[in-house]
Amino acid sequence: MRKLTTVGLVLIMLILVCVAIPMNASAASITKITPDKGKAGRTTIIHGVELEGNTVHVRFGQSEMVMGELLNFKTIKVTVPEKNPTDPEEVPVFVWIDKRPVPGIIWFEYIGAK
Q1: Cis peptide before 35 (omega within 30 of 0)
Q2: What does the domain layout of the chain look like in residue ranges?
Q3: Predicted pLDDT at 22
Q4: Closest CA to 37 of 69, 74, 80, 76
């Protein structure tokens, strides 16, 4: 009986550790961009959660990567780069903070781009 109780306690501890680790892990993600359409050179704000770090890089479709500015734990300010000629008008936006990709799917539509 004592052995069964010990095994039960160990299992409970393992379950608690497995549940607690993801809750404490950073859950950074991007959720939207405003405005979500415009021309190159326009300033946009990328919204998200748990955004923290030192360097922010953003890529619009296949364009050149640009630097962003982390304003707080929920927003990044970035200037829209020139559209890559091979991209369609609407492109996915990718974010990296401290060289780590930030999950989330957001889209930006170039207006008046060639």
Answers
A1: yes
A2: 27-110
A3: 45
A4: 80
The answer to whether the beta carbons of residues 95 and 55 sit under 8 Å apart is: no
HSE toward the beta carbon, residue 23, CA cutoff 13 A:
6
User: Which CATH code for domain 27-110?
Assistant: 2.60.40.10
Question: Which phi and psi (to 5°) does residue 106 adopt?
Answer: -130, 155
Which residues, 6 or more positions from 83, have their beta carbon under 8 angstroms from its beta carbon?
A: 40, 60, 61, 63, 91, 110, 113, 114
Farthest CA pair distance, the chain: 76
Burial 3-41 (b: 16+ CB within 10 A, else e): eeeeeeeeeeeeeeeeeeeeeeeeebebeebeeebbeee
pLDDT tens, the chain, 114 aa long: 554 444 444 445 445 434 444 444 468 999 999 999 999 999 999 999 999 999 999 999 999 999 999 999 999 999 999 999 999 999 999 999 999 999 999 999 999 855
Residues 23, 28, 34: CA angle, nearest 5 degrees: 140
